[in-house]
Amino acid sequence: MNVSYPNGIQALSAVNLKIDEGGLWGILGPNGSGKTTLLKAILGLLPHNGKVLFRAQPIKKSAKQIAYVEQKGDFDMDFPITVFQCVLTGTYPKLGLFKKPGSSEKQAVLNALDKLGLMQFKNRQIGQLSGGQFQRVLIARMLVQNADLIFLDEPFIGIDMESEALIIHHLKQMALNGHTIIMVHHDLKAVREYFDKLILVNRTVVDYGATEDIFIGEKLKQVFPYYHEVVLA
Amino acid sequence: MSSIFLLTVMFQSCQSDEATIHTDDKLKVLSSFSILTEMVEAIGGDKVIVHNVVPIGTDPHEYQPRPNDIRFASGADLFVYNGLNLEGGEKGWFTKLLRSVKADPNKIFKIADQVTPLYLTEKDGSKEVNPHAFISPHIGIIMAEAVRDALKTVDPAHAGFYEETASEYILKLTSIDKLYRQKFGQIPEAQRVFIASEQAFQYLAKEYGLKEGFIWAIDTEENGSPEQLMHAIEFVRTYKPAVLFVESNVDTRPMKAISNETGVPIYSPAIFSDELGRPGQGADTYLKYLEYNLKHIYHGLTGNMEWSK
Amino acid sequence: MGQSFFEFFRYLSEYAFLQNALSVSIVLSVAYSIVGCFIVLRGLALMGDAISHAVLPGVAISYLLQISYFVGAVVFGLMAALGIGFVKENSKIKSDSSIGIVFSAFLALGILLVTKIQSSVNLNNILFGNVLTITNEDRILTYVVSGIVLLAVALFYKELLLTTFDETMAKASGLPVKFINYMVMIMLTLITVVSLQTVGVILVVSLLITPAATAYLLTNKLSSMLWVSTIIGVVSAIIGLYLSATYNLPSGVVMVLAVSCIFVLVFLFNRKTGLVWNKLRLRI
Question: Which fold has domain C2-283?
Fold first, then answer.
C-alpha cells in the first residue's frame, strides 16, 4: 500500500509523498509548519486540491481501516463518558449502523485497557484523568479500532514519562505487526529511538525517508535553521 | 397580552396632512366596530360615509389602530362607539385614538350610554361590565335611537331624514324582538339552556329567559384555563344543553375539549357575537345578524328549523 | 398540600381533558428531555430557540392555506435551520450572528403575515399553547412524532454519541457525520413544533434545555444523563399540570418554572460543582 499525495493547499504546497505499508513514521517540523494540516488534509478533514490514494483507491473509501488520534487538547473533558465507553467507541466504525457492541467488543476494550494500565480507571469520567492517563485512553481506543492506517497528532505533549514509554512500546509493536503508523511529533527528542522513517515538513514536504538518511544536519537545517546543530550534538 | 405582542410593530402614529377629506358633502362617521358601523349606515343612508375601525375577525377589546384609521379620524364629523368597555373603556385604545386626533367632545357619542349594564361573573368578586349588550334585539332598539340622536345632533339639516329611516329601522327591530320572545317562549324551560365560549350572551339570556353557561367571561382573559374548563363541564353535566355553541371569532379548541368530555356535540355553523358575519354568511347586517342568531340558537336547542310566523 | 394532591387525582379521574393533557405532557417530556441532551452537548441551544421563533411564518401560511399548522411550521423551521447552516458555512460570520440574522428575519416575516391575516385570535392560541385544550388530531400527532424521534435516537445511539463526543474521529473513520447532523436538526425542529402545543413559542427552548442541563450536572455517562433528564422532564411536567389544575395557573408556564427550580436546587446543592456544597466543604 501507499499513501500518495501529489498536490498542495494553502498552508502547505507541493506535497508529494509515497509511503509504504508497515512502519512507524514521524512527521517533524517547527510550529506552524503545517504538520497537523498535513494530517487533516490526508484524512479529508480539510479541503485540498490533490489526490490521496490508499491501496490505489481514494482514501475515503477505506475510512474503516483508518484511525485518527487527534490532539488531546481538542477534547471536551466534561463530556459524560467513562474511560470504558470512550475506548468502546473505537469499535463503532467496524460495527457499522444498527449493530450494538457485543461481548467480544467489550472484551477487546478490557484487553486494551489492561495493556495500557488503565483497568482501575475504567469507570471514571474522562475529566478525572491526568494528561498522560487520557492519552493512554486514546491509544487504547486506537488499539481497539485495529486499523491498518493510523494517524496520531502530537500524542506526547504534556504527559508523564511512564505513559510515553508505554505508548511508544505499543506503537512499535503495532508497526512490527504490519500497521502503518504516521505520527506528528512535537519536538526533536528521541527521534532516532522512536521512528524508522521521517517526514520533514516546513510548509511543504522538505524530504522524507529512512531516519538515518533524513535525521542529518543538512536536511534538518532546512527545517530547523537554529536548532539542528544543538540536537545532533 | 398576546395580541399586543404580535401587533406592536404595526402601529405608527401619523398626523394627517389635510384637515378634512371632503367627498361630496356626506357626513363622515368613525365607528368602532362592525355592528355599530352597519347600524349607522342603515340609519344614515346615503347621507353618511362610515369608516369601520376594527375589521371583522379581530378582537374589538384590544386593538391597535392603523394609519388609515387615524387619517379618517382626523377629518371625521362624528365618532360613535359602543361603550360598556367594549373598546377598552376609559383607558382603552379608542379613547386614546380620540385623544390623539384631538376629537371634539361634542362629536363623540357613546351609543350604549342608555343601556342598563349587566356585570360579568368574576371569581374574585370584582365587578366588570359586560360590553355585549348589542347581542340582544331589545338593546338594539335603544342603540338605534342613540344613533339617530347622534346623527341629528351633528347634522341637524337632515334630522327629518334620520327620523324617518330610524323609525323604520326601529320598527324592524321591534318585530325581531317580538320574534325572540315568541320563539324562546315556545321552548320548555328545561331545554332553554345555552352555552357558548364567552359570556357575551348575558343580556340576551336574561331578557329572553335562557340559562346561560360559558367557558370564559370575556375574551381578554385567559381562554381555556383548567378552572374554566372544569366549571363549564359541570354546567353541561348539570343543565344538559342539547348542543354547545361556538362563536365565529374564538379559538374552538376549549369548546371541543368540553364536547369531548361531555359527549354533547358542537352546533354548526358558528353564531356571531362581537362582529357581523362576512358577506355571504347570511349575517352581514345587524338585522340579519339578529335573525341568524335566533334561527340557529332555536334550531340547536329544539331541532326545529322552521317557524310558524 | 396533601389534600390538594388527592384533589388532583380526583380531577384526573373525573375529567378526560386532564387525562389527555397528562398523557401528552408525559410523552412529550420524554421526547424533549432526550433530544435536549444532544442539543445541550452539541451546543445547539440557541439554534433551538431560533427555530421556535422562526416557525411563525410557517404557522401563518398554514392558516392562510387552511392546512395543518404542523406542516407549515416544520417546513419553515427546517428552512431556518438550513439557512443558518448555510450562512455559517459560506461566510466568516460566526454561529451566534448567523442564528440571530436568520431567525429575526423569519420572525419579522411571520409578524407581518399575522397582522395581514388579521385573525390574531386563532394564531395566538397556536403560538402560546394550551395543553388542556389540545385537539385529538394534535394529540395523536404528538405521540407519533415523539415515537419517531425516540426510535431514531435508539437506532442511531452510538453514532449520536460518537459524533457528539468526537466528531473528528467519527469523520475520519467513516461514520455518516453529515447525515447525523441533519438528523439532529430535523429532530430538533419536529420536537420544537410539536411542543408548541404545551408551552408555545417563547418558552419551548426552556423545556429542551433545562432538564438536560440539570442532568449534565449530575451524571458521568451519557446513558445516565438521558435517564436523569427524562425523569426530571417528566416530573416537572406532572408538577406543572398538578399546580395548573389545582391553582388554576397556565400549565406551560408552570412547567417551565418547575423545571427551572429543579435546576437551581441541583446547581446549588450537587456534590461535584454545587456552590453551596463547595462553600460548606471549605468550612469543614
Answer: ABC transporter involved in vitamin B12 uptake, BtuC (1.10.3470)
